[in-house]
Specification:
The N and C termini lie far apart (48 Å). By secondary structure, this protein is mainly alpha-helical. The protein is built from five helices and no strands. The longest helix has 30 residues. 79% of the residues lie in helices and 0% in strands. Helix 1 packs antiparallel against helix 2 and helix 3 packs antiparallel against helix 5. It binds hydroxy diiron-OXO moiety (OFO). Hydroxy diiron-OXO moiety binds next to helix 1, helix 2, helix 3 and helix 5.
């Protein structure tokens, strides 16, 4: 059973992962309609991955006998300027997600929820990889 505080923070993460998926989908559509087909494919794949992240959180909350809430999602932007701006935004967004995963790690220690603390380590490692791969793309673009 999750504490109320853990249930709340994990539900907030469900919203963030779902929004990430929609954001990358919006970016994929923009890239496709501007002729960047390879980048668009990469973004569609990222959108799919983020949806899987959201599903992982949903299923974990259920496994811990708490209630996952499917939230309303903010509409992502439709315009992304140019490819470099777009990837800067992806990078900023991933840093934001890393910070919120860190908050979950911190909260799990506050709540003495060592089960969640262990479970969420997968995301800690995933964020290292995601930030690194976006940084690599940005370096190439520069
Ligand atoms: Fe971009 O990563 Fe989800 O967590």
């Amino acid at each position: 059973m999750l504490t109320k505080a853990m249930e709340t923070i994990l539900n907030e993460q469900i919203e963030k992962e779902g929004y990430s998926s929609n954001l990358y989908l919006a970016m994929a559509v923009w890239a496709e309609s501007n002729g960047f087909n390879g980048i668009s494919k990469w973004l569609y794949a990222q959108a799919e991955e983020e949806r899987l992240h959201m599903l992982k959180f949903i299923s974990y909350v259920g496994e811990r006998d708490a209630n996952a809430i499917i939230p309303e999602f903010k509409k992502p932007p439709v315009e992304f300027g140019n490819i470099k701006d777009l990837f800067e935004e992806v990078y900023k967004h991933e840093q934001f997600i890393s910070a919120s995963i860190n908050d979950i790690v911190g909260k799990s220690l506050d709540e003495k929820d060592y089960t969640t603390h262990t479970w969420v380590q997968w995301f800690v490692n995933e964020q290292i990889e995601e930030e690194a791969s976006v940084r690599e793309i940005l370096d190439k673009l520069k």
